[in-house]
Amino acid sequence: MDLSPDRLIIDVAVIAIMLLVAFPVHEFAHAYAAYRLGDSTARLFGRLSLDPIVHFDPVGGTLMAVSVLLGGGIGWAKPTPVNPYNLRGQHGSAIVSAAGPLSNLGLAIIGGVIFRLLDLSGLQGDAVEFIAQVIFLFVLINLGLMVFNLLPIPPLDGSKVLYSLLDPQTERQVRGFLDQYGLIVLLAVVLLPIVNGETILGAIYLNVLEPIAYLLIGR
User: Fold this and answer.
1) Residues 6 or more apart from 21 whose CB is under 8 A from it?
2) Active-site residues: which are they?
3) If you write DSSP's letter for every residue of 43-66 in order, what string do you get?
4) What is the pLDDT of residue 179?
5) Helix axes 23-36, 92-121, angle to 10 degrees
6) What pLDDT, on a 0 to 100 scale, did the predictor assign at position 58?
7) How far apart are CA 31 and CA 99, in angstroms?
8) Which residues of the chain have pLDDT under 70?
9) For the chain, what is the total number of helices (H) and then of strands (E)?
10) Which residues sit opposite 198 in a β-bridge?
11) For site-directed labelling of 202, which of 22, 36, 64, 87 has its Cα 20 to 30 A away?
12) Is 136 exposed, middle or buried (0-12, 13-18, 19+ CB in 10 A)?
């Protein structure tokens, strides 16, 4: 944990961007996908919006702030209400659930493009270095949120994607197991040092997400 003033300012900027941009975009993506597929529940609750206030969750937002300060980047916004019975298409639930994590991928790609343009500009100085570090963390955290949310473990988005893609009999069996043991599995993925002293999630961050982040920013 870096407690230097410069690092603290960078972390605060990243926290603000995540809460004001990334989280609202993630939930708006869920709401918009559901709306286009026939479910107006999120719209009726005022969630078909990019207003960060309507999507803010105190617990998830606080966790994001604390985890960024500790060198991570896990948190959540207020879950978007969706009625799956209103959705058109066999895989409507999968599309709506995947829309949020895919929006994080889109934000990471946009961040990478901005970083590359900043790099190509030839500008130098403390302000440019500050912006570059903020953008890199923004890219990395959005990639992390995409992967984390796509884990096929309830209550994460990936579980709904998984259920939607399985045949009914297999879904019942898998859902029964995950409803009973999903939280234990999720805690193991996040907390238990399994892979070379790293947690499974930490190993994914280190060996997969960081290389992708560097690829996106062109470094």
Assistant:
1) 52, 107
2) 27
3) HHTT-SS--HHHH--HHHHHHHHH
4) 86
5) 140
6) 95
7) 9
8) 1-3, 195
9) 11, 2
10) 195
11) 22
12) buried
Please state, in angstroms and rounded to a whole number, the distance separating the CA atoms of residues 3 and 214. Answer: 24
Query: In sequence order, what DSSP letters do the residues of 108-143 get, joined into one string?
Result: HHHHHHHHHHHHHHT--SHHHHHHHHHHHHHHHHHH
Closest CA to 104 of 76, 80, 83, 82: 76
Residue 217 burial (C-beta neighbours within 10 Å; 0-12, 13-18, 19+): buried
Rounded Cα distance, 59 and 67, in Å: 12
Q: Which helix (H) or strand (E) holds 30?
A: helix 23-36
| Structure tokens that stand for 20 in this block | 């004001």
Residue 14 in tokens: 């990243």
- Of 55, 46, 66, which Cα lies nearest the Cα of 19? 55
Structure confidence at residue 124 (pLDDT) = 87
Length of the chain measured in residues = 219
pLDDT for the residue 205: 84
